[in-house]
Design brief:
The protein has seven helices and eleven strands. With 219 residues, the protein is an alpha+beta fold. The chain has two domains: 138 residues, Jelly Rolls; 66 residues, Arc Repressor Mutant, subunit A (Orthogonal Bundle). Strands 1-8-3-6 form a four-stranded antiparallel sheet. 26% of the residues are buried. The mean pLDDT is 89.
Length: 219
Amino acid sequence: MEEYVPVLRRTKLFSGVGDEDISAMLSCLGARLKRYKKGEYVLRQGEHLSDILVLAEGSLHIRRDDYWGNRSILGYVGVGEIFGEAYIAPESGALLNDVVAVEDSSVFFFDVRRVMTTCSSACRFHTTVVQNLFFAVSDKNRGLVQKLDYMSRRTTREKLIAYLSEEAKRQNSADIVIPFNRQQLADYLSVDRSAMSNELGRMRDEGLIEFNKNRFRLN
């Protein structure tokens, strides 16, 4: 696990904590590292969770398939991001979604009881980690509000414009890279892939955007 300490230092959960202190805290927080191959499930709908999870390597999709096989991608998890925090409260119930590795990935599991309770060894930065967790959850809630904004748009074009505009703001550039291929983007925005591809083509013809695979330029 030690090789991932520099990665953990750049996460929101360990913001402001040095490498040596993170190494000392891994045992204190009950850290376990699990590795997943592309396509493997990290979490499955119906499971119960008692850990805070941090992605150390790779990328994940949070998704849901209905009874007829229709898929919705609810979120993307990048390196350093926390996930699963919505289900760690005692009365949260079972997971409503699946979490799947988009590529070979490594995930840290931290025992939520140890994270929330200062240990007997009184780690210097334990309080900092608890505060960071609160701020990270706040950021995740903001992301959910943004997703609701995309979904509230009536047309495919409006959803695309809202999503691409927000990504341009987040990446602080008119040239952006999104974490989805075409099918995944359609699943994320809950639109038909063919209709979305046609709309992207019209937007390109009108000079609004340029694109190549998952790279876009907003004009």
